[in-house]
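Hi all, posting the design record for the shared folder.

TITLE: backbone redesign
STEP: 1 of 1
STRUCTURE INPUT:
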């Protein structure tokens, strides 16, 4: 009977390990997807920053319009 209990216990442990490996793989996949999104967002932010700085520089070079009371 002890041999049967050991086998059952071993099977349960193998099942737990399999579930944990799947969970780890799922979490790893989620981390990869999040890093892809973060990378895309950082590139987009950089592009927007460059666009803003370019438009800011062109506005500072343009002559300032006269005040409304002129």
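Okay, here is what came back for every position:
SEQUENCE:
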């Amino acid at each position: 009977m002890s041999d049967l209990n050991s086998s059952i216990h071993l099977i349960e442990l193998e099942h737990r390990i399999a579930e944990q490996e799947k969970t780890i793989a799922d979490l790893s996949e989620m981390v990869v997807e999040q890093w892809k999104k973060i990378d895309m967002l950082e590139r987009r932010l950089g592009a927007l920053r460059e666009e803003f700085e370019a438009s800011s520089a062109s506005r500072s070079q343009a002559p300032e319009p006269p005040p409304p009371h002129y």
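COMMENT: Residues 56 and 62 are 10 Å apart (CA to CA).
Let me know if anyone wants the other runs.
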